[in-house]
C-alpha cells in the first residue's frame, strides 16, 4: 500500500510539473493548504477519493492513470466480473472497487463502495468533500448516514440519492454493520466539453 501511495504521488507531482501548475492552485482546488498539498504530493499523506478525482479533472486525465500509470484503452464496452474491479483503498477502511477502469473517456466513474461501521464515528461530525459534477449513490446492503451540508439523511438497502457533488457531502455506515453501495460519480459536462 505504501509503495502504491508513493507511485501515485510521483505521478501527480510529474503531471503538475509538466503542466506548470503552481502548488497553490492545486491546493486551493482541493481545499487544503499548500503545506498539506505537498504532504500528499510527497506520499506522506494518503489520498482521499475526492483529492484524486479533483487532480485528475485538473490534469485532464482519467483517474485510472493517476492510480495505475496506465491509460484505459477500451472504447466500445468493458466488462468487469464479480470481485474483479480495480480496488482502491481510500479513507479509513473504505474500499472503492472501480467497475469501468478499462474504459477510456468515461463520462462517469462507477464504484462499488464498502463503508465499514465504526461506533466512534456515529456521534461525530461527518467529513464533507466537494468535487465538480454530480453523484448517484444506491444502497445495496446495510445503512448509510449521509450528510449533505446541513442536512442528514439515513438510507437503507434499496434507497438512492442523487446530488450536486459541488456541495459538501459525506457519508458513514450506520446501523451496526458495514454498508455496501453503488456510487456513480459523473463529470461536470461543461468541463468535459472544454477538454474534448
CATH topology of the largest domain: Jelly Rolls
Shape label: globular
| CATH homologous superfamily (4th level) name of the largest domain | Jelly Rolls
Low-confidence stretches: 192-196
What is the C-level CATH assignment of the largest domain? Mainly Beta
Q: What do the pLDDT scores average to? A: 89
Strand order of the largest sheet: 1-2-3-9-4-7
What helical percentage do the residues reach? 25-40%
Content-based structural category: alpha+beta
Strand content: 25-35%
Tally of alpha and pi helices: 6
Number of domains: 2
Give the CA-CA distance, first to last residue. 34 Å
Number of strands: 9
**Topology as a string of helices (H) and strands (E):** HHHHHEEEEEEEEEH
Largest sheet report: 6 strands, antiparallel
Radius of gyration: 17 Å
Q: What can be said about this structure in brief?
A:
This protein has helices at residues 2-18, 23-29, 34-41, 49-59, 63-68, 189-195; strands at 86-89, 95-98, 108-115, 134-141, 143-148, 151-156, 160-164, 169-174, 179-186.
Amino acid at each position: 500500500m505504501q509503495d502504491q501511495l508513493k507511485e501515485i504521488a510521483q505521478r501527480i507531482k510529474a503531471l503538475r510539473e509538466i503542466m506548470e501548475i503552481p502548488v497553490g492552485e492545486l491546493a486551493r482546488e482541493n481545499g487544503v493548504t499548500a503545506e498539506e498539498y505537498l504532504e500528499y504530493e510527497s506520499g506522506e499523506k494518503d489520498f482521499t477519493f475526492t483529492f484524486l478525482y479533483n487532480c485528475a479533472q485538473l490534469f485532464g486525465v482519467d483517474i485510472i492513470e493517476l492510480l495505475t500509470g496506465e491509460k484505459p484503452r477500451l472504447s466500445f464496452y468493458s466488462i468487469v466480473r464479480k470481485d474483479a474491479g480495480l480496488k482502491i483503498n481510500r479513507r479509513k477502511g473504505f474500499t472503492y472497487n472501480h467497475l469501468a477502469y478499462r474504459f477510456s473517456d468515461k463520462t462517469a466513474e462507477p464504484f462499488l463502495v464498502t463503508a465499514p461501521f465504526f461506533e466512534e464515528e456515529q456521534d461525530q461530525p461527518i467529513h464533507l468533500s466537494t468535487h465538480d459534477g454530480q453523484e448517484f449513490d444506491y444502497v445495496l446492503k446495510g445503512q448509510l448516514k449521509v450528510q449533505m451540508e446541513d442536512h442528514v439523511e439515513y438510507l437503507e438497502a434499496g434507497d438512492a440519492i442523487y446530488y450536486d457533488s459541488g456541495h459538501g457531502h459525506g457519508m458513514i455506515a450506520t446501523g451496526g454493520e458495514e454498508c455496501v453501495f453503488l456510487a456513480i460519480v459523473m463529470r461536470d459536462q461543461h468541463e468535459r466539453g472544454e477538454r474534448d
